Amino acid sequence: MANEPEKAVIVGLTADNMEQRERSTEESLDELEALLETAGGVCLCRALQNRRKVEPRSFIGDGKVKELKALAEKYECKLAVFDNELSPSQMRALTDDLELRVIDRPSLILDIFASRARTREGRLQVELAQYKYMLPRLTGMWKHLTKQTGTSAPIGTRGPGETQLETDRRHIRRKIAKLEEELIDVIRTRDTQRRLREKNNVAVVALVGYTNAGKSTLLNTLTGAGIQAENRLFDTLDTTTRRLAVSDTQEALLSDTVGFIRNLPRQFVDAFKATLEELKYADLLIHVIDASSPEWQEQVRVVDRLITEIGAGDTARIEAFNKCDLTMSEIHAHNENIVEISAKTGQGIDTLLKKIEEALCAKSIKLALHIPYSKAALVEALHREGVVAAARYLEGGVELDAVISPRLYSRVKEYIVRK
Length: 419
Prior knowledge:
The protein is an alpha/beta fold. It is built from 14 helices and 14 strands. The protein has helices at about 25-40, 60-75, 90-100, 105-115, 120-135, 140, 165-200, 215-225, 265-270, 275, 295-310, 350-360, 375-385, 405-410, and strands at about 5-15, 40-50, 80, 100-105, 205-210, 240-245, 250-255, 285-290, 315-320, 340, 365-370, 385-395, 395-405, 415-419. Residues about 145-160 have low confidence and may be disordered.
């Protein structure tokens, strides 16, 4: 049948000479199986190999390759999906030895991204990530192509021509350059939008978290956005921003971002730089954590590490333990930056809004200013963008007691009388 799921075997490796975050576990294989199902495949068998070190050629060792080949033949699998990232040479060797199509975790994730991107920006970034992943692996993908020289070459192609492989490499490099140029326009547009928000003193709150933690559901609950939110991995790829009424007197922009996952392809982080950099400029991050997942602690570590890599490690943060309606265990520490919620039922949402308001207000600065009458526009900006508690009209200017944001501070700092 045309719509029959592709049968696959999934494979993982744990070796002493691998970084901890790259090692496979039964839990990471469970996640890989869920990714495979998301991509339209079905796992019929799995193998987790333990070795002292990675085998340079076959990755898992020749003996395990033979076992894996027999296992795949038994279950009539046509695809082998590795939980770890494979080098181009390892992918070629495994494809030859197993006589199966071989992909790794990064390529599977990129395949899912390609099916989920809806906006022009999202499609550009996914395509760029795929080409960057593909470029060093072309030799394996095009191994059936031969050099277009010599007597055995087809008529019309003999002579000092170039290989098809070289042609394809040059074509992909051109595509990468073109996509990067188009994404520069995206970055310029985002910079313009960011400067406009700063000028209007609009606070930005960003939702971050592991994939399927419930970020989109929380966005819907807080803003009534009505965006699609289903219980599946990487349901949201394109960023969605909506206006959030934090309180009767305060508003902010709330952005939903793509979910993170362990061993996220490096090509993804590079290609999605324009989107992920928005986290650096947010006033507040809400880290949405799936409290019902037995792996929540590892998921938190993955997200924290990626937030730091992006450059948003110092941004103020609230940890929102979501799906608390699905768990009875008391596993969470309690402090001023943690709240337990259920985005689905609304439990704890009022508490979350209060914490958001407190966090945004904590960034405000109280000070007294003496502004010359010639700077009337600046006084108007203080009334419009800050909170003016008192105004005293004196000789030479107006003295104001005000509460302002850090963004407005740079415009008025030369007129400060006292803090």
